[in-house]
Amino acid sequence: TMDWMREVARPWSLDLVADVTGMERQRVASLEPLAAAAFEAAARATRPVPTDEHRRAVTAVAQALPAGVDPQAFVALTQSLPALLSTVWSHLVRDAHCWAKARARLPLTPERVDDLLRIGSPVEVLFRTAVRDTDVAGTGVPAGASLALGVGAAQRDRPGAVLTFGSGPHRCPGIALIRTCMRVVTTALLEAFPHAEPAAGAR
Question: Is the pLDDT of residue 125 over 70?
């Protein structure tokens, strides 16, 4: 039995951060709880404007990091990336045919990586503020309105759409790195394990 979040996704992501930033692996691990606090504060937010709790958490991360290391990127790579990886893998192992099919389609193409990102998105809702009066499918949306966008459901319903990383000025700048990580690590797992299934009692 293997806990892929604890034994693969999280330690691999911390190794990646150490490689990308030049920080010592032990130092990255010591700051991971601060990143987790910022991630959890963001997850609890119900409006597009950062809460005081989130600002304080991100500030704590920024103050602890070496100069030149972006706190948002640190949080994304130590928290969002392992969550994304483990969520995708959990979808693959829920059905033995799904795992076998993924193995049969190696190497993973960019299109297949996007398929995995759609089915396994850890982001279900994005919050945004309307900057002008507009209309969405016949429903008026006034400027200043707070919107909850169900991107998880939307990208599963619309083949070809990958909305997890946002778009426009809010688009995640690390999308290329994340896609590469998804391809490399998922390929390694699929090649290492001919068969995989959820442990008894796993959800």
Answer: yes
